[in-house]
């Protein structure tokens, strides 16, 4: 090997090291969370925003204490699964038979570690089960009874499926059974899919998404949430995305991965998110929303739907909004 080639190799290595150091120094940990895209009834929007801001704070406390991005997003989504204001965990919408079928996914940007579950009906926190799939199996996604068998082997407690059904979910299910139900109105007023993305102090990114799916869906329907590249994607080399909206449309364009492709081409988190959502709308007529981060801590909450409840926490400040253009702020230490 020539002196010139050795010297060139050392310069390249030094450049990568300096770039890495710069990224750590110039990066601010952040967690961004969404509570679903679509139409949120006025009487439910306040509870949704309060729940999102509280969850974002909890995730940020983990990051501020040096915790990992994966710990942060799982805790955020776990809290939202326990909040009946959302379409995940307790509060999930019902399928055509009036039963709960839940999906969830996690992805770690360090080594593209992934875990997902679909069609689970008696687990309080599917997001934690998805993380176990990632950490304890050689698989990516487990479904239905197979997921339940794995949960039992891991000591995850089962809950009665009825305990996950709220009066609101039952009301929406009954109303949508009517033969003259408007197909557009059928999906209005539902609580939203929940998801989060985060960047930790080491520049690692992660995503987590959880949902009860589509109102009055066919039994056995699997949506975008547990599908890598659709419901979410995380890669330390690019960033992380969690999606919400019309699942079938999201799957057709693999929305999460599409947005990261645009970021790989040099687009900002905002521009890449908008490009992905615009393509989905023009190509397959789908509406939705996303939360997006890059490894430097830049973040975005973008949507093509009427509304998307979202919150973000960074540099001891909570940001939140519901309609396009909104970005309200409060100190992380302000009372909820």
UniProtKB/TrEMBL annotation:
Q: EC annotation?
A: 3.4.19.5, 3.5.1.1
Q: Which residues cross the membrane?
A: none
Pfam families according to UniProt: Asparaginase_2 (PF01112)
Q: Where is this site: Cleavage?
A: 192-193
Write out the GO biological process terms.
L-asparagine catabolic process via L-aspartate; proteolysis
Enzymatic reactions: L-asparagine + H2O = L-aspartate + NH4(+); Cleavage of a beta-linked Asp residue from the N-terminus of a polypeptide
InterPro entries named among the record's database cross-references: ASRGL1_meta, Ntn_hydrolases_N, Peptidase_T2
Q: Which UniProt keywords apply?
A: Autocatalytic cleavage, Hydrolase, Protease
| Top-rank taxon | Eukaryota
Which is one GO molecular function term here? beta-aspartyl-peptidase activity
Can you tell me which residues form the catalytic site?
Answer: 193
At which positions is substrate bound?
221-224, 244-247
Q: Name one GO cellular component term.
A: cytoplasm
Gene3D superfamilies membership: (Glycosyl)asparaginase
Q: So what family is this one in?
A: Belongs to the Ntn-hydrolase family.
Q: Which PANTHER family match?
A: ISOASPARTYL PEPTIDASE_L-ASPARAGINASE, L-ASPARAGINASE
Could you identify this protein by its name? Isoaspartyl peptidase/L-asparaginase
* Record organism: Zoarces viviparus
